[in-house]
């Protein structure tokens, strides 16, 4: 289990694992294999905590009062961590899940906002996760604000973005300044590379640390215990990253 | 009075041109066999409401020209991407779209459940959704100082349409933990359900089943449709037909390909 053999996905899972430390309940949306892996890993390392809920899996769906229960529980403050993404994300933490171009006559149309304009406000730790790090996705200003990164002081807001994780780096989000700060760059990448492919301005320390790798224990658990569970939930992901054959859903 | 349990075509006959129909997401029970029956019948100008998101069902109905409008928080086939006919119709300006978000749709139907005109909801202030949703209002919380809050109006659909594991001859329908189906049934004028099977007896007489059963007084029609969510999954009962959905994504990428899909899987299946 050498560090040399570590995969990019495992580094990202390690970043998310640190960001969710101490959470009581982590909710994971559809199509989020790496956040799900990190959440299950945290649960295994934490002896059963945090609670991890996955709406689309009968076994991991902790809700029994319908699709609204996630939102109602989040509205009460019972969900500590959620993950969001965006076709575009801008430097103020605004996310766009709707369209590129003019809203009425878009150039490209995406699926839609899902629950973002709600969960971004009420979940204390929202982790933005974007698997394409480019000037196309990380832009100066989004074309459509599905959900804003920050709000005026009189708008009720318990939560919001705390970080943006990409295949290149980890940005922390400063809510007071409404800006991202480069927290660390993943092994094998450079600050120059990040500057080159990021469309928005961000803060950075004079010396940017290298992203720490997950501990050997975490990595072993991830590969031996968590990965086979993921194969049932995210067959494509598990096959691509861990080389596991698809299993029947549970 | 017509029998509640009836053949599929007779059950979906409840859905008439111009009606507002609410449907559930893939993790619940999507009535795909009933959807194909509706397309074959040539129903028109439906207003579709997805609670909260949809995949193949909404995309098929859009592509087949069944819908006058759609209100949804997303039309997505998961890892495979946005619904191709949805994206094509929106970029071409060919469908009246109300972009929503999941909790707002739940709240709109919960308001209808309670028989009240609106419900307040946190979030959304500062989102561009507010600019495109003139029917959503922000007011000052009358119980606090300087606390703006969103109101969403109640939506009362004409019909709730979904698929469930089983029902009985009285029209009671067991949905298990999928309680968004309760919300849909309570909020809608009438409910049409397809089920895997009809069980003998009365589900409400069994306390272990009754709490997860939608009572017949909400239900207009029930039809048996084995594997009624195909090619979508049905809870842990059966998985999605991924190969078929891939084929759909390929064909539906173009208008011609989509027509071929309809011929192959919507029109021809019934004729065979």
Could you explain the architecture of this structure?
Chain A is α/β, with parallel strands linked by helices and 250 residues long. Chain A is 30% helix and 18% strand. A five-stranded mixed sheet of chain A has the order 3-8-10-11-12, with helices on both faces. Chain A has a single domain, classed as 3-Layer(aba) Sandwich (Glutaconate Coenzyme A-transferase). With 272 residues, chain B is α/β, with parallel strands linked by helices. Chain B contains ten helices and 14 strands. In chain B, the strands form three sheets. In chain B, strands 1, 2, 4, 6, 10, 11, 12, 13 and 14 form a nine-stranded mixed sheet that branches. At the A-B interface, α3, β7 and α4 of A face β5, α4, α5 and α7 of B.
Radius of gyration of chain A: 18 Å
CATH class category name of chain B? Alpha Beta
Largest interface by Cβ-Cβ < 8 Å = A-B, 53 and 57 residues
Instruction: Quickly name the level 1 CATH class of chain A.
Output: Alpha Beta
Largest sheet data of chain A = 5 strands, mixed
**In percent, how helical is the residue content of chain B?**
25-40%
- The CATH superfamily of chain A appears as Glutaconate Coenzyme A-transferase
What layout of secondary structure does this protein have?
The complex is a heterodimer of chains A (250) and B (272).
Chain A lengths: L7 H12 L5 E4 L4 H13 L5 E4 L13 H9 L4 E4 L3 E3 L4 E2 L2 E2 L7 E2 L6 H7 L2 E5 L8 E2 L21 E5 L3 E6 L4 E7 L5 H7 L18 H18 L1 H8 L8
Parallel strand pairs in A: 1-2, 3-8, 4-9, 8-10
Antiparallel strand pairs in A: 4-5, 6-7, 10-11, 11-12
Helix pairs in contact in A: 1-2, 2-6, 6-7
Chain B lengths: L7 H5 L7 E4 L8 H10 L4 E5 L2 E2 L1 H8 L3 E6 L1 E2 L8 H8 L4 E4 L2 H13 L3 E4 L7 H4 L4 E4 L7 E6 L5 E10 L4 E2 L5 H8 L2 E10 L7 H4 L2 E2 L4 E6 L17 H10 L3 H17 L1
Parallel strand pairs in B: 1-2, 1-10, 2-4, 3-5, 4-6, 10-12, 12-14
Antiparallel strand pairs in B: 7-9, 8-9, 10-11, 11-13
